[in-house]
């Protein structure tokens, strides 16, 4: 069998950067709840935001309910909406255009500003939720509320900044959380996500400097005739091959071939294998091969490119969201060092939407109790102030603790106490202030720093506190 090297220039393949446009616009949220079809009970108002203008706004998506839809949210989360996913009040599948409202929260502070309660009574004790993320979702058509089709549920892959195992809780009516499942983090990198894309056979290659031909000079292997005038280029771009007693060609089915060279002389056997692409001489041979490839695999190529765009869009959005979370100081305050990931990794959490409303990835956590003080509040001038929405944040826990007339905390931790006056001025007591407290119980007057200017953005609020 004859091995014939072929000399040519190496091929440089172009890279294509693909972009995806998302259909989304902001709308100021409305604090309304829904009931299931046929349910006549009164809904209970449970949302009480301290700063309504600064809470996370809904994104508005216009959905064709007659086709499968994938949405890449501004955070990098994915919403998978199957066709026929929506029901009207009579339980009929909706065919008209649907308006989907969606917002999500990555940390307890965002939840607090939205006014969503995070308290739960569990194991005979008042506790709060430590969160790994939350979504708030509803849908309408023609101005009328819609409902989830239990046979075609919406699936959400939400970005999370918290590692570890959490439970899934839903609140769609009563203001009380109901556990509906478990949540395991799905950790990935951009590289691992791209490796999951649908596989497409390798396109034809231009013959490289190590390309070669094979020929059955002794006409002992008729199966090699179909490879006459065919070029092979080693995948590893290294020299390979030699004249042999026999040459075996195995189609690996993914656009590559395994070429095995065998030499048998007396009692000696030599064998060498190399994985190759089919290669073509630059010019008409290559152009024809590329055209045939594109026609044959057009459907697979379109699917792969579409999913690649989705992955790239998701990562771009996620990286932007992560940087904003970090810049706001929230990452350093809420992140548990024991659950820290590398900068190349991201966490996704998956849920199936059974009802529209608020859905959490959470776990109950106990109130801190080492120090328990009866609280009074003054401004820095000693003037008594009356506060609402009083909350304590403990560094390293993605939770916010609700207080009114008393405050408890762990003095070994960094703590931040916040509240709002009747005219929505921010009052806060910082970690350095907590370090000055020496008593463990009894009455204590918290001298709060009061922000007298109007806070106009969520970013400004974070700069003041974190």
TrEMBL record:
<protein>
    <submittedName>
        <fullName>Uncharacterized protein</fullName>
    </submittedName>
</protein>
<keyword id="KW-0732">Signal</keyword>
<feature type="signal peptide">
    <location>
        <begin position="1"/>
        <end position="24"/>
    </location>
</feature>
<keyword id="KW-0175">Coiled coil</keyword>
<feature type="coiled-coil region">
    <location>
        <begin position="290"/>
        <end position="328"/>
    </location>
</feature>
């Amino acid at each position: 069998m004859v091995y014939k090297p072929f000399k040519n220039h190496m091929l440089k393949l172009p890279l294509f950067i693909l972009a995806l446009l998302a259909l989304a616009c902001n709308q100021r949220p409305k604090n309304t709840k829904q009931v299931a079809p046929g349910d006549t009970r009164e809904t209970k108002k449970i949302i009480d935001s301290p700063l309504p203008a600064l809470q996370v706004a809904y994104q508005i998506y216009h959905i064709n309910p007659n086709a499968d839809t994938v949405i890449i949210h501004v955070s990098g989360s994915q919403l998978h909406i199957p066709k026929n996913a929506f029901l009207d009040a009579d339980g009929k599948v909706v065919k008209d255009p649907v308006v989907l409202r969606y917002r999500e929260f990555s940390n307890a502070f965002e939840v607090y500003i939205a006014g969503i309660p995070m308290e739960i009574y569990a194991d005979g004790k008042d506790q709060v939720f430590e969160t790994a993320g939350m979504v708030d979702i509803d849908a309408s058509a023609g101005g009328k509320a819609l409902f989830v089709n239990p046979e075609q549920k919406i699936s959400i892959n939400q970005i999370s900044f918290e590692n570890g195992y959490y439970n899934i809780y839903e609140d769609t009516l009563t203001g009380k959380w109901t556990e509906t499942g478990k949540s395991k983090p799905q950790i990935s990198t951009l590289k691992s996500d791209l490796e999951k894309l649908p596989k497409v056979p390798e396109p034809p290659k231009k013959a490289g400097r190590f390309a070669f031909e094979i020929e059955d000079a002794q006409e002992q292997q008729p199966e090699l005739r179909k490879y006459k005038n065919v070029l092979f280029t080693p995948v590893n771009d290294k020299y390979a091959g030699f004249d042999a007693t026999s040459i075996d060609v195995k189609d690996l089915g993914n656009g590559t071939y395994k070429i095995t060279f065998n030499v048998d002389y007396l009692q000696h056997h030599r064998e060498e294998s190399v994985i190759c692409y089919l290669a073509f001489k630059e010019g008409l041979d290559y152009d024809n091969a590329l055209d045939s490839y594109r026609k044959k695999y057009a459907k697979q190529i379109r699917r792969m490119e579409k999913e690649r765009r989705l992955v790239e869009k998701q990562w771009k959005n996620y990286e932007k969201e992560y940087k904003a979370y970090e810049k706001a100081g929230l990452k350093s305050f809420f992140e548990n060092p024991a659950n820290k990931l590398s900068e190349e990794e991201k966490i996704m959490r998956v849920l199936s939407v059974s009802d529209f409303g608020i859905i959490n990835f959470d776990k109950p956590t106990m109130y801190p109790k080492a120090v328990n003080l009866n609280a009074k509040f003054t401004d820095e001038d000693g003037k008594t102030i009356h506060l609402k929405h009083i909350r304590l944040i403990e560094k390293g826990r993605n939770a916010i603790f609700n207080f009114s007339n008393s405050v408890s905390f762990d003095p070994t931790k960094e703590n931040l106490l916040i509240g709002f006056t009747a005219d929505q001025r921010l009052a806060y007591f910082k970690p350095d202030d907590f370090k000055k407290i020496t008593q463990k119980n009894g009455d204590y007057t918290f001298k709060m720093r009061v922000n007298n200017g109007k806070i106009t953005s969520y970013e400004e609020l974070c700069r003041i506190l974190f």
